[in-house]
Amino acid sequence: MKYELVSGFETHIELQTKTKIFCGCTTQFGGEPNTHCCPVCIGLPGTLPVLNREVVRFAIKAGLAVHGEIASVAKMDRKNYCYPDLSKAYQISQLYAPLIIGGYVELSSGKKIRLHHIHIEEDAGKLIHRHGDTYVDYNRGGVPLIEIVSEPDIRSVDEAREYVEKLQQVMRYIGISDCRMQEGSMRCDVNVSVRPEGSETFGTRTEIKNMNSITNIVKAMEYEYDRQVDLIESGGKVVQETLRYDDVSGTTSSMRSKEDAHDYRYFRDPDLVTINIPREEVEALRAEMPELPADKCRRYIDALGIPEKDAQLLTKYRRISEFFDAAIEGVKSPKTVSNFIIGQMFRRAETESDKEQFDLPTTPQQLNALVKLLDSGKIRNNLAKATLEKMLDTGKPATDFISESDMGGVDDNALLALCKAAIEGNAKAVADFRGGKEKALKALVGNVMKNSRGKADAQAAEAKIKELLG
Amino acid sequence: MVTREDVENIALLSKLFVPEEELDGLTKSMQEIIDFADAINNAPASAEGFDCINNLSNVFREDEVVPSYPSEEILRNAPAQAEDHFLVRNRE
């Protein structure tokens, strides 16, 4: 029997606010242990948490970016559990009235992965297990998170990968998080179940906790799919449980025993008042939103004539698309700019974080000036390419590397002379062309280009030669 | 009914020291607290009525950093600590 994979994601994203969600301690990553803490975020009795306004704004932006409905009224709840990463023995989160309801992430296939909701909550502290004891650092405790809960709409590991990448991309675009999975500012809990192909009912699901790389998500889902299918095929039953993925062995294992099933006893947090979100505020935030990557990509394809694949590359990172937007100002062909960026500049931004920063020595204005020299016919493509390499090496403008004589181009008289010389010196090519060999023309144009040291306009030369032989 | 033993137990769990002579008074107070909670449970009001605190809404902080506490201060009440961390001993 063939089995279908069914998966839903819970994605935690750390918000880039300056301070924690309920107190004024810094959210800066790292720091000496327990130095970014105060009585509120270590949960001392008698302290009063007060919600950071920016957290609400960032969450609303996240909601707008994924087409969610922004609630008019939202509330904070306590999720009770006893574990040393939370000193209060509860996490302040949202269950009954989250900030964002619904929404979706659209994949390149056009399929929409629906979202159930997005809520805000506090992050827990960091535990270090050493010599059988647990060392607790609460610097991360109270850092604001949004949790994006999807519907079980994902049907393959490829869809899972694209879903995570799309979320990462859009959240970075709107500037609410750096979404670095390795550093833990984006983490996924992955629900996986299988069912016979064609079946309408869901199978029993397992949840793989705290995945911190896309590669591991894919591997863990593949492993878990195989494990569940094997189990069912051999007459067994999938047990609903929480799993941990071990990337060394490439296997999943149970984190908690079944009898330890959680009852979080959620209830309204009496310390925190109701959040009312006026529609005007939502509209003001909507007005602040940048152009989203999907819209940008469509615009590059439709309005600028960029091939789809290239448009996707240009819009994957916000800085790169902004660089492109600035560099195409007033140029004849945006595609030329795109070719320079993808063909030559990408090689110099190898890592993901390089591309995220896209902080190369050449400015968009410098690239723009180079492309305009090309547009005006003052220089040829080969010279432009070589010049860009030098610009990228040094950060200097194009004019530092192109002499006046390079830019002179070739005027009509000179071009005519060059074409005539090419015809006189290449009798065989001329004969071949006259005999019907179109290709022979290339040799003649090549001769003109060579003798003009690349400065002549190849198209003009071709036209002129045809005219002379015509 | 709340007993003296209940109060002793709660004090132990809360890591609070309660002198012998305060036990009777605290037992009585605890009983009153429980009775009060029961009164709330029996009230016929709608859930909405209990939902807001003094009808307050939208109490926010601005996103401005204030200095945190030194780690010695943060760790002062820790039952155990090591290397600037709270230490949770594994009792297994």
Query: Helix/strand/pairing class of chain B, anyone?
Result: mainly alpha
Low-confidence stretches of chain B: none
**Beta-strand level of the residues of chain B, as a percent range?**
5-15%
Strand content of chain A: 15-25%
Supply the number of structural domains of chain B: 1
Query: How much is the radius of gyration of chain A in Å?
Result: 30 Å
Structural class of chain A comes to alpha+beta
Strands of chain A, count: 18
Distance between the termini of chain B: 35 Å
Approximate shape of chain B? flat
Fraction in helix of chain A: 25-40%
Mean residue pLDDT of chain A: 92
Order of helices and strands of chain B: HHHEHEE
How does the major sheet of chain A shape up?
Answer: 10 strands, mixed
Mean pLDDT of chain B: 87
Count of DSSP H/I helices of chain A: 16
Most extensive chain interface and residues per partner: A-B, 42 and 30 residues
Structure annotation, total helices of chain B: 4
Strand numbers in spatial order across the main sheet of chain B: 2-3
Determine Rg of chain B (CA atoms, Å): 20 Å
Write the layout of secondary structure elements.
The complex is a heterodimer of chains A (470) and B (92).
Chain A: E1 3-14, E2 51-52, H1 53-65, E3 69-70, E4 73-74, E5 77-80, E6 90-93, E7 100-101, E8 104-106, E9 112-122, E10 126-130, E11 133-137, E12 144-150, H2 157-173, E13 186-196, E14 206-211, H3 214-233, E15 242-246, E16 251-254, E17 267-268, E18 275-276, H4 279-288, H5 293-302, H6 308-315, H7 318-327, H8 334-345, H9 352-357, H10 364-375, H11 381-394, H12 404-407, H13 412-425, H14 427-434, H15 440-451, H16 458-469
Parallel strand pairs in A: 14-15
Antiparallel strand pairs in A: 1-12, 1-13, 3-7, 4-18, 5-6, 5-17, 7-9, 8-9, 9-12, 10-11, 13-14, 15-16
Chain B: H1 4-13, H2 23-42, H3 47-51, E1 60-61, H4 71-74, E2 81-82, E3 85-88
Antiparallel strand pairs in B: 2-3
Descriptive report:
The complex is a heterodimer of chains A (470) and B (92). Chain A folds into three domains: 3-283, no CATH class; 312-381 and 390-402, no CATH class; 412-469, Arc Repressor Mutant, subunit A, CATH 1.10.10.410. In chain A, 39% of the residues lie in helices and 19% in strands. Chain A has helices at residues 53-65, 157-173, 214-233, 279-288, 293-302, 308-315, 318-327, 334-345, 352-357, 364-375, 381-394, 404-407, 412-425, 427-434, 440-451, 458-469; strands at residues 3-14, 51-52, 69-70, 73-74, 77-80, 90-93, 100-101, 104-106, 112-122, 126-130, 133-137, 144-150, 186-196, 206-211, 242-246, 251-254, 267-268, 275-276. In chain A, helix 13 (412-425) crosses helix 15 (440-451). In chain B, helix 1 packs across helix 2. In chain B, strand 2 (81-82) and strand 3 form a beta hairpin. Chain B has a two-stranded antiparallel sheet. Chain B has one domain (4-56, 67-86). Chain B contains four helices and three strands, in the order H-H-H-E-H-E-E. The radius of gyration of chain B is 20 Å and the shape is flat. Chain A binds chain B through residues 17-19, 22-26, 32-39, 42, 44, 50-56, 75, 84, 87, 128, 132-138, 268, 270, 273-276, and chain B through 51-53, 56-66, 68-71, 74-75, 77, 82-90.
